[in-house]
Amino acid sequence: MTTNALQIELDPRELRGKKVGRLRRVGIVPVHLYGPSIEPRSLQCQASQLIRVLAQAGGATPISITIQGESGTHLAFAGELQWDPRNDGLLHVDLVAADVNRPVTAQVPINFIGESPGARNVNGTVIQQLRTVDVQALPLEMPAQIEVDLELMTEPDSVVRVAELDVPSSATILTDGEEMVARIELPRVAEEVFPGQGNAEADAESEGGDTEEAAGE
Fold it and tell me: Is residue 144 included in any domain, yes or no?
């Protein structure tokens, strides 16, 4: 499935450097928009609105940006996000502009659906070895996520590798096809104690004790 760009409007930003602290105190986040085909722009946005869009976009969904007071739009992907370690507030956002006609590379998340018969039959657990893969596609053709149907893992030794992932023909996975995406982890089985084995050492110790006692007598 191809990606539909999310929409957001940003405002031009006058304050820069240390002065941006004034913006953050009133719930506004500084944004830097840049890319190979545009002039870098200093912008800003209300934190609540920006966080909502970024949460939906992740790193693989393009964002269609309009700027207050200007015509036209820019297509961009979320780049570096800076968070405040003291209160988890969003400090700064980089948005990387993309050309709609030029392929880009993004990390696309892998999402599991369904239940594995192979894991269910042995009370095992499906372990996700890989959470994202690198995908190349045109910005508006980039998959938002890649689904893995666990129903296809029918045996306890079933695995899913990158080469088996299903993506649109307009996208190319760049991650090594041999990398493992999912496997089944079998439950740990407690070591068995065979009948009589647990008492053998005790019996030997008992016998040894009787012998020493007899010798003493």
Answer: yes
